[in-house]
């Protein structure tokens, strides 16, 4: 379904203040599927949620936008999928946006495998594993985001990556086994909405790893950011290169490369999209001029002026 058609189907501006999301189907008291909360005759159920990205995104930049909430395995074919926006920089000229609804926030054990809905936050997964003595997800405790976002970029801490214990992923057209997905360091060829990750189930939650991962985080700034801004080039570190070209701590407007970790672009308060882009371009230019290395973004820039096919701009 094209996004424009979905938009036309509802006049979401008629909705209660703040564009609060009204789920298409929620269980009513008698256990039947019915719209909730009950509303006046003729009211329209909106599949859109209004999100203020200056608050919602981890870097605290972005417009207020109406985001299409995916409630089933059908979704618009020309909208950009977001998770919980921990690795995104959303600009004023963003494409239509969509997001998995709460229907995809669950964890189940089925046939000795862990089924995790792609909208499930990492923190919830760690709590579940702790409670049920399940191994291998301890690193997620210090990784902000949803399982879907983590799958898409093979997120991880050093060699602890989300693909390490993955069995298969559920997409619109069926399941893809681990061996059928290309993946590497902070990258995969996932170009569709992942609805669920199915993981190997192993016993033994390791409390000592939680402390180890916390230590690994010790050099990270606490200011709003989207995590590492650039991928580490082969055999080097983006942070080292940014520092070497004199940009550690460098500021444009209210955005800066952190004094604590140069590869973290931080928002010092009301930093703008344009400030962030100017800083990004400065580092790319200087590193290329000095070392001949092209820095590749780890953060996805969601603005039509900066997107291309490699940015997963269409699902
Ligand atoms: C302070 C900080 C520290 C961080 N440290 C690390 C780190 O150490 N290691 C690391 O790997 N990352 C790190 N990150 C980045 C972030 O944790 C990961 O990228 C995470 O996977 C983002 O998840 P998200 O749900 O927020 O996805 P988003 O940021 O919303 O989206 C990221 C990408 O995933 C895609 N996506 C989202 N959901 C789905 C889905 N269901 N199906 C298919 N594609 C989907 C989006 O289209 C987008 O391309 C850090 C971020 C912050 C803010």
Order of helices and strands: HEEEHEEEEEEHHEEEEEEEHHEEEHE
Estimated helix fraction? 10-25%
Total number of beta strands = 20
The proportion of strand residues reads: 15-25%
Oligomeric state of this protein? single chain
What structural category do the secondary elements indicate? alpha+beta
Which ligands appear in the coordinates?
Answer: flavin-adenine dinucleotide
Mean pLDDT: 87
What would your notes on this structure say?
This protein is of the alpha+beta class. It has three domains: 3-103, Uridine Diphospho-n-acetylenolpyruvylglucosamine Reductase, domain 2, CATH 3.30.43.10; 107-213, Uridine Diphospho-n-acetylenolpyruvylglucosamine Reductase, domain 3 (2-Layer Sandwich); 228-298, UDP-N-acetylenolpyruvoylglucosamine reductase, C-terminal domain (Uridine Diphospho-n-acetylenolpyruvylglucosamine Reductase, domain 1), CATH 3.90.78. The chain contains seven helices and 20 strands. It has helices at 3-9, 53-56, 122-131, 147-153, 207-216, 238-244, 273-291, and strands at residues 26-27, 33-34, 48-52, 64-70, 80-82, 88-90, 97-100, 107-110, 113-117, 156-157, 160-161, 166-171, 174-177, 183-184, 187-188, 196-200, 251-252, 255-257, 265-267, 300-302. It has a five-stranded antiparallel sheet with strand order 8-9-16-12-13, covered by helices on one side. The longest helix is centred in the last third of the chain and has 19 residues, at 273-291. The protein is globular. The N and C termini lie close together (12 Å). Mean pLDDT is 87; it is low at 7-41 and 309-315. Flavin-adenine dinucleotide binds at residues 58, 81-88, 100, 118, 143-146, 148-150, 152-153, 155-157, 186, 190, 193-194, 225-227, 300, 312.
